Amino acid sequence: MVIRVAVIGAGAAGLAALRHMKARCDEFEPVAFEQMPVIGGTWVYSDELLDTHGRPLPSSMYKCLRTNLPKELMAFPDFPFSEDLPSYIGHKDVLQYLDNYADHFGLKQFIRFETEVARVHPVPNGNGSVTWSVWVRDLMKPTEDLSQYDFDAVLVCNGHYTEPFIPNIPGIEEFSGEIFHSHSYRTADRYKGKRVLVLGAKASGIDLSIEIASVADKVWLCHRGPFLKTPLPENVTQAPGIKEVTNDSAVLDDGQILRNLDVIAFCTGYLYSFPFLSEDCRCTVTEHQRVMSLYKHLVHSHFTTLSFIGILKGIVPFPGYHSQVQFVLAALSGQMKLPKEEEMEDDINKDFEWRMSQGMPLNAAHTMGDLQWDYYDCLAHLAGFECLPPVFRKFYSYCHELIFENILVYRKHNFSLLSNEEYTICKF
């Protein structure tokens, strides 16, 4: 029997799902629901914050964004980027790549564009399994009417860069200047001559600090981690986190006061959001952003036909989706037998407890970094598909170190993959 699968989202994760199901068309019948008129998800740039239907855009792209990983490492293993591009590329190049990927594998035929998923609900079949009732809204129609479809499985591929997290800082409501989250940032022009505090020193915080510094009078990069050792622009100063805010100032954790601030930019990450899942889906997200009951960060331990592709953080995304999708399809097809629910829950809890024993913060339940390579190998061994090339592991490690040697120039490097084992630096 062919397995009917609803795919929520046609960004990179959703496209990977469609690509592998199309390759097994005798087993799977996918339909992807995408609220935008194009594929690409977070890689679709727009100057606007709302779409043509008045809904918030899912993208967090800013105009001058370039990847912080080389294209040789970012690509799906079965579809390389164009060799004509440099290693570190712009968001337009990534979006074009995803469009080429969709065309190459013939994926657009499975996508219903401008269609919003309003509700997903499990319906018991009486034999211990469920059918998934999926309610969708056609955004091209003037009415709010919903259409309902039944599926055997659901793959949630809606990304996790749409719901900004803004910490509750005492006094923030008293601040008289501009406050924004990196989700709504597009260009630095409006911050010319301003005094800007950027909170958060992950990828977006560092990028925005450097870009805004090109026009601002002064930028403070505030964060609670160890100070970065990389060179920064002369008008960027690292500082501790924020303790409280007043009308035009910020009091930092060490008691230092930054005065006459014009702007506070929150580069503080995002919240997982699955508003379309009914309560009966038993999908709980804790206050520390741990999505509960996901075996291998993927498969719901109770509803094993409900899976989440791409909730991991600190990963090389496209190769990661490539591996995750194959694991999920192996489980759905019966090619791989999943453990019993209590065994999966035990595995989930052991993973989280190990993270805590290593001193990782509570909000790192799905953060991987160097852990991702053993994780992908584990998925491959369990489900019986080919592991990612070994070169990815050491290539990723080198690129990560390169960033923090000199964050101002690392994107000038170019690379080439020589084999599944080796890479080389082409020029600098």
Largest sheet report: 5 strands, parallel
Average pLDDT confidence is 96
Shape: globular
Radius of gyration, taken over Cα atoms and rounded to an integer in Å: 22 Å
Spatial order of strands in the largest sheet: 3-2-1-7-20
- Per DSSP, the total helix count is 8
The string of secondary-structure elements, in order, is EHEHHEEEEEEEEHEEEEEEEEEEHHHHEE
Strand composition percent: 15-25%
- Which structural class fits the helix and strand makeup? alpha/beta
Poorly predicted runs of 5 or more residues: none
Description:
- There is one protein chain.
- Strand 10 (195-199), helix 4 (203-213) and strand 11 (218-222) form a beta-alpha-beta unit.
- This protein is globular.
- The mean pLDDT is 96.
- Helices cover 24% and strands 22% of the residues.
- It has a 5-stranded parallel β-sheet with strand order 3-2-1-7-20, covered by helices on one side. A 5-stranded parallel β-sheet has the order 9-16-10-11-12, with helices on one face. Strands 4-5-6 form a 3-stranded antiparallel β-sheet, with no helix packed on it.
- It is an alpha/beta fold.
- Helix 1 (12-22) packs across helix 5.
- The protein has helices at 12-22, 71-74, 91-105, 203-213, 317-333, 341-357, 372-383, 391-405; strands spanning 3-8, 28-33, 111-112, 115-124, 130-138, 146-151, 153-156, 163-164, 178-181, 195-199, 218-222, 236-239, 242-245, 250-252, 257-258, 263-266, 270-271, 294-295, 299-300, 306-308, 414-417, 423-427.
